[in-house]
Amino acid sequence: MVRLYTNEITIGYGDRVIVKDLSVQIPDRKITTIIGSNGCGKSTLLKAISRIIPFQSGTVILDGKNISQENTKILAKKMAILPQTPESASGLSVGELVSYGRFPYQKGFSRLTKKDMEVINWALEVTGTACFKYRPVDALSGGQRQRVWIAMALAQETEIIFLDEPTTYLDMAHQLEVLELLQRLNREQERTIVMVLHDLNQAARFADYLIALKDGQVMKAGQSEEVLTPLVLRKVFNIDAEIGKDPRTNKPMCITYNLLKGDRKHEKADDSLYFNLSVNY
């Protein structure tokens, strides 16, 4: 089932086009991860789909409606986004910041309800930030702040959550903690998760569906076994990768790689391999 998809969207900044005529489908109630090299359009695509930035042409459809014409509060009850570099929360306590996730459910200047407080406290607990509730956000470490921003996104109680590099600033243990949390939300509450990740092995391990971008175009989309292959990684990252299997998850993993230089005869392979946009879920 697909509730969210783009239809030939073009996105740019000024005269520079980042994404051109791109059509992608986001599987419902699955974890979708977008991968690709720096500057390929991953974050730009994520922001456009979530209506953070406008697109020049095309449409983004959610539940049969063009999101460009949807009411902001209605849309905010369906999707939440954690940007790569969240805005400053100077002067706010952790609890106050997380409470902003309840904005779509409030009327005017009404106070937080009992239900709001329950959701806020739940979001703090599941992200391991309840002990920081009354501390200033500015006083936290980078990793702690990241978990607080995720708590705010969770407090929004949306069916779809977008995250742009959610493991930024986190050590290995906290990266795993965040990704396992997102996986639980997907499996136990059937939340649709869409995120950008740089770590290919994390992407393959946690995603049900991968989208590999290069220069604003989809090179390959599908399950991790279809996308994390030597041929696709050559096309997307210009690397010669050795792919094995994770002994704990049986998912593909990049064991090692070299940067390809000079003659690139490998690119003479059938390019149709990279443009198979079939949805397998």
Main features:
13 strands; 5-stranded antiparallel β-sheet; disordered C terminus; 281 residues; globular; 30% helix; 6-stranded mixed β-sheet; single chain; alpha/beta
Notes on the structure:
The chain is an alpha/beta fold and 281 residues long. Helix content is 30%, strand content 27%. The chain has 9 helices and 13 strands. The protein has a 6-stranded mixed beta sheet with strand order 7-8-9-4-10-11, sandwiched between helices. Strands 1, 2, 3, 5 and 6 form a 5-stranded antiparallel beta sheet that branches. Strands 12-13 form a two-stranded antiparallel ribbon. Strand 5 and strand 6 (65-66) form a beta hairpin. Helix 4 runs antiparallel to helix 5. The longest helix is centred in the middle third of the chain and has 18 residues, at 172-189. It is globular and about 60 Å long.
Topology of this protein?
Blueprint: E1 2-13, E2 16-22, E3 25-27, E4 31-36, H1 42-49, E5 57-62, E6 65-66, H2 72-76, E7 79-82, H3 94-99, H4 114-126, H5 142-155, E8 160-164, H6 172-189, E9 192-196, H7 200-206, E10 209-214, E11 217-222, H8 224-227, H9 230-237, E12 239-245, E13 252-259
Parallel strand pairs: 4-9, 4-10, 7-8, 8-9
Antiparallel strand pairs: 1-2, 1-3, 1-5, 5-6, 10-11, 12-13
Helix pairs in contact: 4-5
Subcellular location: Cell membrane
Protein name: ABC transporter ATP-binding protein
Organism: Bacillus salipaludis
